[in-house]
Amino acid sequence: MKNHLQHLLTQALQHLHRTQQLAIAPPSDIPVERTRDRAHGDFASSIALALAKTARCKPRDLAQSVITALPPSDSVQRVEIAGPGFINFFLRSTAYHQVVREILAQGEAFGRSQQGAGQSVQVEFVSANPTGPLHVGHGRGAAFGATVANLLEAVGYRVHREYYVNDAGRQMHILAASVWLRYLELCGVPITFPTNGYKGAYVRAIASLLFAEHGEAYAIDFAEVLAHLPPDEPQGGNKEIYIDALIERAKNLLGDNRYRYVFELGLNTILDDIRADLSEFGVQYDKWYSERGLLESGAVNKAIEQLRQSGYVHEQDGALWFRSSAFGDEKDRVIQRENGQTTYFASDIAYHLEKFERGFERVIDIWGADHHGYIPRVKAALQAVGVDPTKLDVLLVQFAILYRQGVRAQMSTRSGEFVTLRDLRQEVGNDAARFFYVMRKSEQHLDFDLDLAKTQSKDNPVYYIQYAHARVCSVLGKLAEKGLSCETAQGLDHLALLTETHEETLLVALSRYPECVESAALNQEPHQLAQYLRDLATAFHVYYNEHRVLVDEADLRSARLVLSLAVRQVIRNGLALLGVTAPEVM
Question: Is-contact 494 555, C-beta < 8 A?
């Protein structure tokens, strides 16, 4: 309906422009919003206020000219001027009846549009380091990213979903060293585990795989491992220096082939686990992009050279620095260390340049909120080599905090104290997890109430919404038990019988769905859709409790049935975008 009114206003403004009653051409985007109080109409436009100054006329006078030029519409009952020049539209009840026809005719396509006009957009999300299982914090990024991608597709964008695998950094070497030390324990070698090693049970599981495949072939006396190493933190040393020295010792003692095997075993075991977790969570990717692939292809060196040619690289103390401070960053950043090794930041620059080289018109990164300071330096690098930084949007996601019986669960990948996404899914199910993760704005803290997520009551929003869908299915079952069938055509012919206040509320709510999808997509705010579905479900439950659907009078019964079918379809469509199922029986 919003689009219809925008079209009417555009036609009116074009007419005024053609007949020289308006000196300026109408804008491409006409503001039309729903009113908060239906006493002031169903929709209002501020277009006269927006154009009055440029058109050199009073807003109310321009509003009156627009109203006079409006083409007739069966959906509009009357149009009024309000306040300083707002144009208020009052719709006929038949306008909302048309929505029911559209929903039942379009089915799964209802609410979708071509707002994105086929533009290509890449959405990169989760991209957790493969150093441990996904925990409940990562789950929020997964649910949010997958839903943002679904919403963008729903409004006409061509979406490419991508996971960036950090398989070349220091953390992966720490994982390899951790696996090898746990393997030595299995070989009966007494060890002291490093302060900065990965301590989770999953490390022992990977070590068990190594032992099962190779026995004690990788075993070395721990005294030889420790010989001449600097002290670890408990002995008064630096844990970072110690773990780096331990990694180098592991490489030297195992040799390239054996060390690489341990490294790959840790990487691939965890990465396979991440792939399986996300797939079972309903999250799919078009590409898993390897950081090592960037290095091996020469893309990182190419990016550094591009920055050098742009004049934004300088050398200091043997290292190469990108002058990101020239673009508003708080300080310059190292892209190549004095030992010749490139930094993670250099790989990230290369990755983002490569994204645009692949032809994406827009790139969306979904990062944890702790990466906030990283945004200006990545945008600075793009700008330095001539890429429009506004084409990169970075959405920040706060980690979810899990509560069980009011007690906060601890989460630390390094210490191994965390609740995995798999554990969460097994306890509350995919549907509750997917919905709860997107109930709030991504940048807001999320307290995930595990007990609420398992409750079968109206306090549990996902259950309440799914129950509304199942309730319509139950009505159809009762109809069949009576030996009757749903006469859709009859119902559509008698929508004028839907005069109850609760029915009008439902009709208006249904008409809002396409607008909600578009707004949620363009603003990357899935919580808008989650809240809409909750409101729609509430409106239906109230209606169902106040009015019988299966009344004796056939025409009214059919009209109420098609209204209920429309509610069911919209709930199903909305839940699908959120990655949540719509059960028929509960």
Answer: yes
